[in-house]
Amino acid sequence: MSKSPISKKPAENEDFSDLFKMEMMPPAVPQQHISLQNPKKAKNDIQQYNKIIEEDNISREFEQSMKMVPDLPFDFVQYQPEDEKINPDFPKRPAMKLLQPEMFQYYDIYILFYIFYYFPNSPYQYFAAKELKSRGWTFLNESQQWVHLISHVYETTDKDIIGKFEIFDRSPDVWDVVVRNSYSISKQEINKD
């Protein structure tokens, strides 16, 4: 298939302004078409068009709404495992699905305690606390401990609750649930949230 040469070369003074009429312009261009014959008018038209774009509230609202989108906790693009000599069958990126709220119901209490204490001031801490509370655990504000009533309360006073409790001991030596008989808890120390 041979290409035929262009039969006519456009003249330098040829007027192409008909190509830029309003019917052919995109809807964002102002109602009057930009004049190519009068450079001063064209510059004025472009300035008006730019002013309309700058005053557009939709783009400002979009930019403000993007500020409310939370950052990802991990940078997936540059993530590298800390230990380069790991099994090649292990995942190369963190499994973020495991930190989704619907997954917390499947974790045992030790994983929930780990998430609660090692992800402070994060949504993960909130979801771990929510799941622990749904399982009957109570957080004590002053001692920063989680407790769980095992059996009935032995004694209740105006200020204290005495009973058999499971207490999560997060000291470095223990990191385990410890059972305490006749353990006293101050009612003021119990977290209401």
Automatic annotation (TrEMBL):
Transmembrane segments: none annotated. InterPro entries: CCR4-NOT_su2/3/5_C_sf, Not2/3/5, NOT2/3/5_C. Residues 79-188 form the NOT2/NOT3/NOT5 C-terminal domain. The keyword Transcription applies. Belongs to the CNOT2/3/5 family. Keywords: Transcription, Transcription regulation. Pfam families: NOT2_3_5_C. This is NOT2/NOT3/NOT5 C-terminal domain-containing protein. GO terms for biological process: nuclear-transcribed mRNA poly(A) tail shortening; regulation of DNA-templated transcription. PANTHER family: CCR4 NOT-RELATED (PTHR23326). The keyword Cytoplasm does not apply. GO terms for cellular component: CCR4-NOT core complex; P-body. It comes from the Eukaryota. It comes from Trichomonas vaginalis (strain ATCC PRA-98 / G3).
